[in-house]
Amino acid sequence: MTRAKDDDLSGTPTRYRKRATLADVAADLGLNASTVSRALDPSRHSMVSSSTRERVVSAAGRLGYRPDLRARSLMTGRTQTIVVIAANLGNTTVTPVLHGVASRVAVEGIVPIIAETNDDSAVLLELIDHMLSRRVDAIIVMGARRQDAAAIESAARLVPVVVTFRPLLDVAVPVIMVDDRKGGALVAAHFASLGHQLVAQLPGPSDVMNFLLRDEGFSATAKETGLDVVVTPDEAEVPTFEEGQRLMRELLDSDDRKPTAIFAHNDPMAIGAMSVLDERGIKIPADLSIAGYNDMPFTAFLACPLTTVRYPGWEVGHAAADAVIRMLAGEGKVASVCVDPEFVPRASTSSARNRTAQP
Prior knowledge:
Elements: H1 22-29, H2 33-40, H3 50-63, H4 69-76, E1 81-86, H5 94-106, E2 111-116, H6 121-133, E3 138-141, H7 149-155, E4 161-164, E5 175-178, H8 180-193, E6 198-202, H9 209-224, E7 228-230, H10 241-253, E8 261-264, H11 267-279, E9 289-291, E10 308-310, H12 313-328, E11 337-339, E12 342-344
Parallel strand pairs: 1-2, 1-3, 3-4, 4-5, 5-11, 6-7, 6-8, 8-9
Antiparallel strand pairs: 10-12
Helix pairs in contact: 1-2, 1-3, 5-12, 8-9, 10-11
């Protein structure tokens, strides 16, 4: 078997074909390079006749011409890239948000760069600095904690910045958020409608605004509807399955009265709590009702489907990207957006009437 001269033993080319240039396309058609440039530039192609434009586009495709984005960025000051920084890409609630961003920026010819902080504020700061040095056009921050506000506002002096997914209040950038206060209130109202009287929360980290707002909404509605809320001994360090297990064990092992309904601040924590209840022989919902938050894709297919609050991720991501695009277009001050959540009742919650709380 023989191999091409320019290939190594792995079949990978050791030389690459020279890329076609704008001048190559112009020479092929016998046109001026400036005419070809206008025909291939979406912002200027109306300056060229439609027949010429069609000839240029056809020749560019045939010759394999690709625009030199580095050269274009020097002329326009734009790289046609934005960065989306998430805390945890393994969180399935993040995926619809990314889809919403991608679908909106694609029609503008903008490429999203996806980055992850592993829920570490120091990494967020490093990523912001790194992406600014790469001259991205804008930044969408999905993984903010309250202490990150100063770094985000500093970056916003250089490029458009939008905060989403994890909101920050009183920050000088647009915030695209879900009304988590309303989401927490919906859970408390649901518990009250089922006749529960003694309830509890498994709270997420207090430096993440979503969880503070969920707590505020739940607590306020619990007070309005006459629910008695057991104060849990701790909060989650990170909103994970394992932390849901830890908080559930602490609640069950405490000397406090035992609630008949529990609101975990996200679905992974709720599922962690459910695993502990199963270990202890406490039946859901016969002995104890439980609700989560986010409506992750698998929550409807658990052995006991989880009552939860749907986080409208695609809508949030699309709105965040739209805000960035409007800022890049120079629209001036872009308003923040608050999207309503949707309550999703399932089998993990039921009536508390005629039921006795677990000892």
